[in-house]
Specification:
By secondary structure, the chain is an alpha/beta fold. The chain is built from 10 helices and 22 strands. The strands form 4 sheets. A 10-stranded mixed beta sheet has the order 2-1-22-19-18-17-4-20-21-3. Helix 3 links the parallel strand 6 and strand 7. Helix 2 crosses helix 3.
């Protein structure tokens, strides 16, 4: 059995370290067993959000650094991202509020900000990746005139009489992006539908999401020639996933119209909630659609703690049954913006203070321990280990390679011996506070 070990160790310097390993005797007490015959969910890939903030930061880089940035995220020697998320209309990480229509009499459809900033970045990313970037489209708010509070910010709800009109606009977004050469695959009904935010936001109950999907969005997508776009609901924190999913799917027709559920990480692990949703609704996809280091909530964390938070959450979500994983902003400035309400955050890649270059954060390297090795079309495998201190997951890729990712968040080194199909194991020592991915190929 051939194996290549790739590690990220903050003490050894921020880069990926590759080592070829040989099979050898296994220490059974410290054995990690991978079971290729135990197969679980297929996985569609990793990605991040093409926000207006990210696109403007990218455009402001010198031309040669723009391509270097794309290589870092979408090149196969970088993170190898193949997915992305896009806001329809403005979000907090836009340069201000904007919408596709300005008022009740406006019969046009304004995509000027998308055409200027977002779509060029997506097309450049696709060219770098050499493959379509599968997109999830999400609205933060309908146009102000369609809402009960007359404001894109501060919550409010979609007026019942505007449901068909707004669904038509959402379908036009999908059609417009596809016509521009983008690969739209998913659409959520609403970002964070239970949160009244100081920025772009809109409230839906679980029933309202179901009614909107069944009665308006699904028909509008079909009429726009985008009936294959999968509709996701919830797109908010994990802990209420079961209740919201059950409430939406209780709406007549929702089981057919809704293809899955999206969720964020801002209220803790809740991996059991995700696993229960996967087990209870096995025909529905589960998508991690947003997570980031918010300065307002995670102030004072070390770079290592941020990276380990990312890795721990990705690991738990993968093992719970997700179909895809989407980080938040791909790129932000040194302040953590631009953001039109001061809701600054960190991204895995940040601009330098003068904006002339970009900096790869520690979490970038930890994400790469997953995304570089678990490729689109991979299938999760059964895996078990000798200690709960070692967090693990295993996937078989379409080319037959098996990736075993391991995270050590403890203060001590952990010896690891990985066995597969009864062959001799591959052994290594995982340093304290480090992460490794072992890529296994059976002989021949």
């Amino acid at each position: 059995m051939k194996a290549v070990l790739t590690t990220t160790d903050l003490q050894a310097g921020l880069r990926w370290h590759e080592t070829e390993l040989e099979s050898g005797p296994v220490d059974c007490v410290r054995q990690v067993s991978v079971y290729p015959e135990l197969r679980f969910q297929p996985f569609q890939g990793f990605g991040g959000a093409f926000t207006e903030a990210a696109a403007v930061c990218w455009k402001n880089l010198p031309p040669e650094r723009r391509q270097a940035f794309l290589d870092a995220y979408f090149g196969r020697s970088g993170l190898g991202y193949t997915l992305g998320r896009v806001h329809m209309g403005s979000c907090d990480f836009a340069l201000g509020n904007y919408a596709c229509q300005s008022g009740p009499e406006d019969e046009g459809f304004d995509t000027g900000r998308d055409d200027e900033n977002l779509i060029p970045m997506i097309l450049a990313a696709q060219k770098t990746a050499g493959t379509p970037i599968g997109l999830m489209l999400s609205p933060w708010s309908p146009p102000a005139f369609m809402k009960t509070n007359g404001d894109m910010n501060h919550g409010g709800s979609l007026k019942p009489e505007c449901r068909a009109r707004w669904a038509g606009c959402m379908a036009k977004y999908a059609a417009h992006y596809r016509a521009a050469g983008c690969d739209v695959r998913l659409m959520s009904v609403q970002n964070e539908p239970a949160a009244v935010q100081t920025w772009d936001s809109c409230i839906y109950s679980a029933q309202e999401e179901g009614e909107f999907a069944v009665g308006h969005l699904a028909p509008a997508l079909r009429e726009a020639g985008c009936g294959d776009v999968k509709i996701l609901v919830w797109d908010h924190n994990k802990e209420l996933l079961i209740q919201r999913a059950a409430g939406t799917l209780a709406v007549p027709g929702a089981a057919e119209a809704v293809g899955g559920f999206a969720f964020h990480w801002y209220t803790g692990d809740h991996f059991d909630t995700v696993r229960l949703a996967h087990d209870h609704w096995p025909d529905k996809e589960l998508w991690f659609s947003e997570g980031c280091v918010e300065y307002s909530r995670f102030d004072g964390m070390t770079t290592l703690q941020k990276a380990e938070m990312y890795a721990h959450d990705i690991m738990g979500n993968l093992n719970a049954g997700i179909s895809g994983s989407l980080d938040w902003n791909l790129l932000l400035d040194a302040k953590g913006g631009p953001n039109h309400v001061g809701n600054f955050c960190e991204a895995p890649v940040m601009l330098s203070e003068d904006g002339s270059d970009f900096i790869l954060q520690t979490e970038y390297y930890y994400i790469g321990q997953f995304s570089r090795f678990i490729r689109p079309g991979a299938v999760r495998l059964g895996v078990s280990g000798w200690t709960s201190d070692l967090e693990m997951t295993a996937f078989e890729n379409p080319d037959g390679s098996i990736a075993v990712a391991a995270l050590n968040r403890t203060e001590r080194a952990l010896p690891v011996s990985v066995t597969l199909d009864g062959q001799e194991g591959v052994g290594f020592v995982l340093a304290p506070h480090s992460m490794a991915t072992l890529e296994l190929r059976t002989a021949g």
